[in-house]
Amino acid sequence: MKWKLLVLMMVLGLAAAIGMAAAPAAPGAPAAPAAKAAPAAPAAPAAPQDPSVAAVKPGDAFLKAHESFLKRVKEGPIGVLFLGDSITAGWTRAKEIWDKYYGKYSPANFGIGGDRTQHVLWRIENGELDGTSPKVVVLMIGTNNTGGDSGEAIAKADTKIVQSIRAKLPKTKVLVLGVFPRGDRKSGDLSPTAMPKIKEVNAALAKLDDGNMIRFLDITEKFLSGGKIPADVMPDQLHPNAKGYQIWAEAMQPLLEEMMK
Questions:
Q1: Is 85 within 8 Å of 118 (Cβ atoms)?
Q2: Catalytic residue among 99, 189, 232, 236
Q3: Which residue among 82, 135, 163, 243 is buried most deeply as judged by most CB within 10 Å?
Q4: What are the pLDDT digits (tens) for 107-133?
Q5: Which CATH number is correct for 60-260, 3.40.980.20, 3.40.50.2000, 3.90.190.20, 3.40.50.1110?
Q6: Does 239 participate in catalysis according to the annotation?
Q7: pTM for the whole thing?
Q8: In the sheet where 173-177 sits, what is the strand order?
């Protein structure tokens, strides 16, 4: 009997254990929702570039043009070198005038559209004037800085460019052109925001003229008629067309010829 009672107790204990194992677990407290990540702080706006500090311009076009200028230097002598932005680069649209006035000087056009003073400084620091010795460098740069820089800052940057040219090419004369006038495309009037800066820049650049190695020439008035820029000279109130380049060439030629002697 005892052994039967012992077996019965073991069976009952095993059944109880199985029942406990099979019982569903008591529901626990609901899981806390996952914490949401804090939104990322907005990126700080890029600091404006100092127009007097050399800076490379983003984009392949800038570097390709720079490489082509380095190649031009290696190809042979340069008598007169034009250095600037799209206004200078635009001489390619007036090739007959370019050839007529400058062809005899073995000219080189180192203009890049959209360039600002800091980009020209970078180009100078990265070899565009190395290994050459032109008689004259014709410089005009600064109009693209007028949107964000003060006239004083642009003049300071232009002055640094002239000093850099003279340091690289001590035997080369520099013909500094006053920044050309800009007009308002809608009204046809001179730009009320850009022109005060341009006048300030040109007044400062005029002081660089030493009568010998650095000469300054402001031909603003040559482009104006009745205080405005005629559409048949600068259709977009900024870039000369062929007529505009003819005006430029005629106005600059006497001083350039003197400097090329």
A1: no
A2: 236
A3: 82
A4: 999 999 999 999 999 999 999 999 999
A5: 3.40.50.1110
A6: yes
A7: 0.83
A8: 107-111, 80-84, 136-140, 173-177, 214-217
